[in-house]
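We give the entry.
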Amino acid sequence: MKKLVILGAGTAGTMMLNKLEPVLDRDEWQITIVDQFETHYYQPGFLFIPFGIYNKKDVIKPKRDFFPTSAEVIFSAIDRIEPKENKVSLQNGTVLSYDYLIIATGSKIHPEETEGMKEAGWHKNIFDFYTIEGAMALSKFLKYWEGGKLVLNIVEMPIKCPVAPLEFVFLADWWFTEQGIRDKVDIEFVTPLPGAFTKPKASNVFGDFLDKKNIQLVPDFNIARVDSEANKIISWDEKEVNYDLLVTIPTNMGDEAIARSGLGDELNFIPTDKETLQAIGHDNIFVIGDATNLPSSKAGSVAHFEADILLENFLCAIEGRALRAKFDGHANCYIESGFGKGILIDFNYDTEPLPGKFPLPGVGPFSLLEETKMNHYGKMLFRWMYWNLLIRGSELPIEAQMTMAGKRR
């Protein structure tokens, strides 16, 4: 019997399990999925917790709820992957052999990578919202905060969901307005990028939104350290930004097991063919989601589009055929902009976000690079789609390859 091992049961790993289980012959294939934790988190929902839009129960469910009964499930941390022996050693002592391996081990924040980040101010007036613990702690803090200077700082790229920091400051503008203290809060968006976003044209649009909302953009700021006693962040070239409340997006890194296995780059992301999703140098290993080093967004929509490509290429691989499906870097992101409105962007490796209508040309109902109420509804609907369709491997009416239909250059 042939063996497929999937490492990671987050968004990407669970989707691949649910897409492959119905098409692989159970008499010929044993599928094993491995993950350290039994709880599945809807990570896009963490953004809404500090502002009271979602609570903890809205973003967590048992992982077993989304696994097919035929799959072998092992809850354990990974010790290391041994690709020359086609083996995976787990920290519980189990050793798994495989014929094919899919790595979906994701990424997580590492605030300890920045000097001073986790000292006296951590979860007192320095918070993240990329973990459930950070989002909940920030929610408690904001309930009683009476104002001051809020600084959002991105430590370095790449990060999960590159639009989430923008969404945070947009929602903060709305939140403080609703609380009647917007005039008592200064908001700064401090980024290592030259503008508000990774794509230049969209960056200009989002920069205009920051201006309109009276949020100061501080570009080209590469943080070196945090002085939590003096409440300031300092860049490598000794520029300083003071804060009363610091919301940080710390360094994002891949799983530590990737480093122990010698498979990753300096941030533990795995060199991956950007079209086929095959691990470079390993014909029987595929990588998906945040674990890759691809020049695409680390986001749920990207993992979904990658899953369609990987399904086709995996079936080609096990049948000895050439890998014919090509991932184009497609990303589709709803951006909550506050006050019941949102923005939508759709782009890939080569094409920047463009204006237009989505998904139906001329009809929509969603507008690209425009702020509309319908885009907000799309964002809020996504949680239902995630729990009920996306991670269950269901087909969605959006092609994996980006289309130019409905877009205007």
Remarks:
- The two ends are 52 Å apart (CA to CA).
- The chain has a mean pLDDT of 96.
- The CA atoms of residues 341 and 373 lie 4 Å apart.
